[in-house]
Design goal:
- The protein is an alpha+beta fold.
- The protein has 2 domains: about 60 residues; about 30 residues, no CATH class.
- A two-stranded antiparallel sheet has the order 1-2.
- β1 and β2 form a beta hairpin.
- The protein is elongated, with a radius of gyration of 31 Å.
């Protein structure tokens, strides 16, 4: 029963946050100042700012974390061997450079 109550509370909170997000968006797209918009919509400015703060906190908490990744060092993917000579080249070598090298060796 406790988990059901917790789930209901979570749903209520989510509904409130959606309503508050809609209010914030409506104010921001209205072209009115916060004070004017609140007066027209029967909301106290302090209440609006409190809701704005909660919406922002929720957005930050639910945003995906940014994890820096290190790209693996690119190893030489192309190897050319002729008459005991070995050449290792990066995989992203320019095609015309590779062609010129192969023509010179052959």
């Amino acid at each position: 029963m406790a988990t059901e109550a917790t789930a209901i509370t979570a749903v209520k909170q989510e509904v409130r946050l959606r309503e508050w997000s809609a209010q914030v968006e409506a104010q921001q797209t209205s072209g009115l100042t916060v004070r004017q918009w609140c007066l027209e919509n029967g909301i106290k400015p302090n209440t609006y700012y409190s809701r704005l703060q909660k919406v922002r906190a929720h957005c930050i908490a639910s945003a995906p974390a940014i994890v820096p990744l290190r790209a693996p060092r690119q190893s030489a993917d192309i190897r050319i061997e002729k008459n005991g000579l070995q050449i290792a080249l990066p995989a992203d070598i320019a095609p015309d450079t590779l062609l010129a090298l192969v023509q010179t060796l052959c």
